[in-house]
Amino acid sequence: MEFNATIDLIIKDLNDACQIIxxxxxxxxxxxxxxxxxxxxxxxxxxxxxxxKSIKQQPIEQKIEKAEEKKQAAKPSRSxxxxxxxxxxxxxxxxxxxxEKNQQLSSIIADKFKGKSSSxxxxxxxxxxxxxxxxxxxxxxxxxxKAAIGLNDRFLFIREIFNGxxxxxxxxxxxxxxxxxxDDARAVIISYTGSSEENEAVKQLMDLVKRKHIPNE
Length: 217
Fold this sequence. Notes:
The chain is an all-alpha fold. The protein is 74% helix and 0% strand.
């Protein structure tokens, strides 16, 4: 396969991976900051690979011939070298050209990604672990409780809060969607539990309610 066609195929696959990663944001419970970080890594990889197409590489053999011509022109009176010495000399020239090419590529890549690490760190801020990501998600507003509650959490709430009564759960969620404050929402939940004591399932549901009322409180 042609070199440029191979590069284009790899870049296309990386872009497709970015789209797949971006789609993960629609799933409840997936930290958005981790999705963005994964997308950034894919994009960075695509940029690096794309650079390979823009680097114009002159054939090594042509560079060797030019180097030999310059040396011969500079020293016209010198006799031709024996085959063994000429071969050793050619190998040294090839090694020098390879080193120069690698240095140029490293320099281009370094310039391309200069400051990228710091920008990613700035996006992450001071958050370092899963606990920090969880705290971020707790502060992110939501528009709809029904949409934000995943399948596992729904089963948990029906079992632990509504004693397995799905209809009671559906009625409660409809009332919570219309509640005007977290206090009103807590009163709705207590009307079904019959107690002000909050177990883990109730606390989890209340966390979602608070996120829904963040813009209003």
